[in-house]
């Protein structure tokens, strides 16, 4: 008998997407849910024992949750590792300008996007502004129905003959992805024929000043405060059911928050056995896992060291043995088969919406460049586990050989010597402002992650 879809899980996931459109918002939500489930900040714990639940966070943009098992920490961890950043537009440090009576916010795109997809969409501003007095202002503008939204304009078809002859990669430049933030009015021509340059300048200054006045009144932000701000431009709007049968979800940021949410939810729903369980959510995967909050950093290694120290068994060798003996699912999405563009896929090795969690033995591009090639022994162990529990899974690659490729955080975990396999949700229209997933796959991913945490 087919198991009924867990509607509570699906609604929780949609809520996570609505309230987690940046890595900071995702991290805060995961920590809040963890605290509600009994997790404590590891800094508040002098020692740890079996059954304890703690978290480690870095700059509010990466987090690791640990549920301590009964066995030796040297035996390794069961790790669910996902990333919580998504392609978007970032606001520059000197962003505000006005051009011919329109006020703009200058941006720099983040991650792999098709730039033309971001034109004429309702957009929202999320992030923080850190002021010199030490206060931090949280910005979330464009999501409530009463909020204004922002947009990047496009050329009307009547004037777009030149644009439409250019390639999709070129007809929209990165420097043109600037948001309309407000507007002024041109000076009135009184018919005298006098030079109106001074009046135009006054009007221009007036329009920009009006926008700055709103920012000052609503958020207490001065123009110079943009220099210490982290503002992200994302699609405005909520996750929605897609299709008459409501079998799909349309939402921003499902790469990779579909896997981050189900990984965290699985950990919070599980209890550790002999091995310590971990959910790791990191930043910057979309731009190479760099920085202090990316998987390339020592964040996770340091977090494990803090865990080991509080278990009373600290040594460098213990940390290394723990990491070396761990199992990890790199919880990241895979490209769903697109029937409208089937020639881009090896259909026999593609993942399908509704087919269950996707096991991807290797990622990379062309000759598996930058791939983490999972061990067949580990895959067989997982197959046996999921088959025994009736959990659906599918084996897939990202697309045809030499067609393209992609990567995840798997290879950065594999360097410790642990078993790692990419395992996640199939996504259609990946990296578009609005992505598509199957509710069935969200449910199966949750069940698969929860089962993985029982591995001994």
What is the strand and helix layout of this fold?
Blueprint: H1 7-19, H2 23-36, E1 40-41, E2 53-58, E3 62-67, E4 77-83, E5 88-99, E6 102-110, E7 123-130, E8 136-141, E9 179-183, H3 197-219, E10 229-235, E11 240-242, E12 248-251, H4 254-269, E13 276-282, H5 299-310, H6 316-324, E14 327-330, E15 334-335, E16 357-360, E17 364-365, H7 376-389, E18 393-395, E19 405-406, H8 410-414, E20 419-424, E21 426-427, E22 435-438, H9 439-452
Parallel strand pairs: 1-2, 4-13, 4-14, 14-20, 15-21, 16-18
Antiparallel strand pairs: 2-3, 3-13, 5-6, 5-10, 6-9, 7-8, 7-10, 11-12, 12-22, 16-20, 17-19
Helix pairs in contact: 2-4, 4-9, 5-6
Would you mind describing this structure in some detail?
The structure is a single chain. This protein has 456 residues and is α/β, with parallel strands linked by helices. The chain contains 9 helices and 22 strands. It has a 9-stranded mixed β-sheet, sandwiched between helices. Strands 8-7-10-5-6-9 form a 6-stranded antiparallel β-sheet, covered by helices on one side. Strands 11-12-22 form a 3-stranded antiparallel β-sheet. The longest helix is centred in the middle third of the chain and has 23 residues, at 197-219. The chain starts with 6 loop residues before the first helix and ends with a helix.
